[in-house]
Amino acid sequence: MREAFIAGNWKMNMTPAKGAEFATALVKELADCKSKVLVAPPFVTIPAVSQALKGSNILLGAQNMADHLSGAFTGEVSAEMLKEVGVSVVILGHSERRALYGETDAIVNAKIRLALSQDLDVIFCVGETLAEREAGILKDILYRQVTEGLKGVDALQMSRITVAYEPVWAIGTGKTATPDDANEAHAYIRAVVGSMYTKGVAESLIIQYGGSVKPSNVKDLMAMEHVDGALVGGASLTVDQFVPIAKFN
């Protein structure tokens, strides 16, 4: 049985002081949580949150990572830097990185392979825009993103990959894919991974849903056969919202 994995992506929110205070509250509230839980603060907030999370059951993630180990890449943050401040998981291929900063499938793939080589786990984001869904090419988009993003990743490394399906039209809009919509997309992603690797790899793959997840809809989403967790945006920024999501079960 796949373990439920709830991740909070804080995006560009939470200063170091506020992040540490919030993380301290989460440590207390989620001490008995049955789910695997992660928070991903902004880069400058990571060290303070890392200290607050020490000894807890909450994993520390990063929202992005450079596709080089070091060098003349102004403004970038490397895997080594992230690891030294306690990060164990990195979110890659988020729709905002693709749409706002021009990250291609090839860039996402390079980052995934580099993260894995540096002993970091990965949350690999895929998903379609509203125009792509309405054009009937959802599966084409997901097939391309999954196969291109996982190029060069071997079957053993897949145990370190979590896929997050995030319909772009549902992120921060208040709109949510129905549980059946999410389950159908997740089942297709699982089938694509099965065709690339083995049925066993596909069946063990954790696939999160991301897109306006909140306490009121998390149980219905998590009841779906192929929905194994959630990548939470706005609702990950308050105790009142995030704790009930993490404790959905």
Describe this structure in words.
Helix content is 41%, strand content 15%. With 249 residues, it is an alpha/beta fold. The chain has a single domain, classed as Aldolase class I (TIM Barrel, Alpha-Beta Barrel), CATH 3.20.20.70. The protein has an eight-stranded parallel β-barrel with strand order 1-2-3-4-5-6-7-8, surrounded by six helices. It starts with a strand and ends with a helix.
Properties at a glance:
8 strands, eight-stranded parallel β-barrel, alpha/beta
Structure summary, number of beta strands: 8
Strand order of the largest sheet: 1-2-3-4-5-6-7-8
* Class inferred from helices and paired strands: alpha/beta
Number of helices, where a helix is a run of at least 4 consecutive DSSP H or I residues? 11
Average residue pLDDT: 96
Sheet with the most strands?
8 strands, parallel, barrel
Q: Low-confidence segments, ≥5 residues, pLDDT <50?
A: none
Report how far apart the termini are. 14 Å
Bin the strand percentage. 15-25%
